[in-house]
Design brief:
This protein has about 180 residues and is α/β, with parallel strands linked by helices. Helix content is about 45%, strand content about 15%. The chain is globular and about 40 Å long.
Length: about 180
């Protein structure tokens, strides 16, 4: 009996056979409108991606059940925002996590991001940066490293989540190739 047939006989999903948790089964990255958030999309109903949300947008994400906001923006970027995002997220009942990076995130930064994304099965997560470009890097890296997606499939999801920069795509591709 093959591994997949054995898992199916036990009532487990095929996604579990490849290291993916049940909440990822059948999920894809697709555009979704949430307030005025630029470049917003979602992976199934558990993980949202966006460019910088406004204070009102954060309240909209909270209404959708988002429990954690993961902000990838650098401190200098946040100073120009016009509101305190951490306070706004907390006021809306959400946990706020800032893992700032530019370029390719360090392994330590990725570990922090992965830890929050791995909790998506317990509560919805919003991950954002300025445009969703860094979000795509983090998502592709996560799906490749944590869920065992082949590099091209992980990159495809990263692009759907916002990865647009050819330079960041190249760095992400290199990172994914090292993991496989």
């Amino acid at each position: 009996m093959t591994k997949i047939a054995l898992l199916a006989a036990c009532g487990l999903t095929a996604s579990l056979a490849y290291g993916q948790p049940a909440w990822t089964a059948g999920a894809k990255v697709a555009p979704v409108a949430v307030g005025q958030s630029p470049n917003s999309s979602a992976f199934g109903s558990r993980v949202y991606f966006a460019g910088q949300p406004s204070q009102a947008d954060l309240a909209e994400y909270a209404k959708l059940g988002v429990k954690t906001v993961v902000n990838l923006r650098m401190p200098a970027e946040m100073e120009k925002l016009g509101f305190d995002e951490a306070t706004a997220a907390k006021a809306a009942g959400m946990k706020y996590v800032n893992v700032p990076f530019s370029g390719m995130p360090s392994d330590g930064d990725l570990a922090k991001i992965y830890a929050e994304l791995n909790k998506s099965g317990e509560g919805k997560v919003l991950m954002h940066c300025a445009s969703s470009n860094r979000v795509g890097v983090a998502w592709a890296s996560f799906r490749g490293a944590e869920h065992g997606l082949p590099a091209e499939a992980a990159l495809s999801e990263g692009k759907a989540a916002g990865l647009k920069s050819p330079a960041l795509e190249k760095l992400t591709r290199e990172k994914l190739s090292l993991k496989q």
